[in-house]
Amino acid sequence: MEIANTKISLRQLLEPHRSKGCRIAFVPTMGALHEGHLALVNQAKQLADIVVCSIFVNPTQFNDPKDLEKYPRPIEHDISLLQSAHCDLLFHPAVDEMYGLAERWHLDLGHLEQVLEGLHRPGHFQGVTQILKKLFDAVRPDVACFGQKDFQQYKVVEHMVDKLKLPLTLALCPTVREPGGLAMSSRNVRLTPEGRKQAQQLYRTLQQTQADLHRKSMDALRTDAIRVLEGSPGIQVEYFEVYQAESFKAADETSRNGQLVALAAIWVDGVRLIDNLLL
Question: Quick one: 63 and 131 in the same domain?
Answer without folding.
Answer: yes
